[in-house]
Amino acid sequence: MADSHVQAAGQCTHAEIWQQPEIWPDTVRRVRVRPPLSSPGPVILTGAGTSAYAAQAVEAAWPGARAVASTELFLDFRQYLHDRGLVVSFARSGDSPESMAVVNKIRQALPGVRHLAVTCNAEGKLAQAAGVEAIVLDARTNDRSLAMTSSFSNLVLAGLTLARRDETEAAVPAMSRAVAEALPRLEQAARALAEKPPRRAVALASWPLFGAAREARLKILEMTAGRVAAMAETFLGLRHGPMSFLEPDTLVLCFVSSDPRRRRYELDLVSELRAKGLGRLVALAPAEIGCAVFDELISTEASALADELRTPAEIVFGQLLAYYLSLRLGLDPDRPSPAGIINRVVAGVRIYED
C-alpha cells in the first residue's frame, strides 16, 4: 500500500507506479500462452514516445530486431521492410495517428508483412485493426495519467517475454518481489532527492539500459512541464560534447551495468565527473559496487539481473523521482501540462496519402 504522505494531486500516477510489480507476472502469462514468434524477414519493433523507448529496451534483448519509432516508420518503412517481415507495435492506447499509419500503410504496400500489437487498451484502434494480432495487457496498465508508467514497464516486459521467453519468465517472480519490497525505500529516496529540484538532470546508461535512461529523462520532462531540463546520453558518449550540459548541482541518474566489462568504463566516466565537480551522482546499480564515487546508491535484488532484463525494475525509481519533482514544483503529476501543451493521446497529426 502506498504511504500516507501521498497528496491529492497525482493520486492516479502514484497508484499506477506502485501497482507495477503486482501486474508483471500477469503480463508474462498473457504472452507466454502464445506460440513462439518466428519471422521469415526483418523484425521491426515500433511505438511512439514512451512506447518507442519500450521498443528500444526490447531491441537490446532481441537479437537481429530493430527498434524504429512509429513516428519515423510510417514515413520510410521501405528502408526497413520488404515483402516479408514482422512489425511489433507497442502502444498504451493504440489510438495515436502514427500507430495506425504504420499498420495501414505497410499493409497496403507490403501485404506479406505480419503485424503484432502489444497494447494496454482492448478498445483501441490498434487492438481492433484488421490484420493485426493483438496481445492485450491487464486493463490496469492503461494508465489514466498523462505520463506512461505502468504501461511502459509492462509493454517492455511483454516484449522481453516475446524475445527471451524462458529467461524472462524465470526472472519475473524475483523481480516483482524485490521491487515490491523496495518500494517504500525507493519512494523515500525519490522524495528526498526532489526536495531541492535541480535545474538540469541527466540519465546515463550503456546501450542495453538506454531505453530506460531515455524514458527516465522523458518522465522528468513531462512531469515537471519542462521546468527541469533533462537529457539522456550513454556513459561513453557523454565526453563527446554533452558533458557541457552538466553543472555542479545537475542530477545525474546513472543506470550502472551489472556486467563488469561494461561497468568499468561507466565507473571511469563517473570518477571523471566526480573529479571535475560535476553533478549530484545517483546510481541505479547492483549493491556490490558500493557508494565510493556516488552520492547515493539505489539498488534492489533485480539490479543484479542481466542488463537486458532490468528496465522494468529500474525505471520505477525514475518514475518516482519525476513524480516527487512534479509535486515539489507545485504541479499535478496526473495532469502536469496545465497549458495543454502535451496530452495523454497525441492528436493533430495529419497523415497524408502517398
Structure description:
The chain has 354 residues and is of the alpha/beta class. The protein is built from eleven helices and ten strands. The protein folds into two domains: 157 residues, Glucose-6-phosphate isomerase like protein, domain 1 (Rossmann fold, 3-Layer(aba) Sandwich), CATH 3.40.50; 153 residues, Glucose-6-phosphate isomerase like protein, domain 1 (Rossmann fold). The strands form two sheets. The chain has a five-stranded parallel beta sheet with strand order 2-1-3-4-5. Strands 7-6-8-9-10 form a five-stranded parallel beta sheet, with helices on both faces. The longest helix is centred in the middle third of the chain and has 30 residues.
Concise account of the structure shown:
The chain has 354 residues and is α/β, with parallel strands linked by helices. It has helices at 11-18, 20-32, 50-59, 70-76, 97-109, 125-128, 150-163, 165-194, 210-223, 260-276, 311-328, and strands spanning 43-46, 66-67, 85-91, 113-119, 132-136, 200-205, 229-233, 251-255, 280-284, 296-298.
Question: What key attributes describe this structure?
Answer:
globular; five-stranded parallel sheet; alpha/beta; 2 domains; 354 residues; Rossmann fold
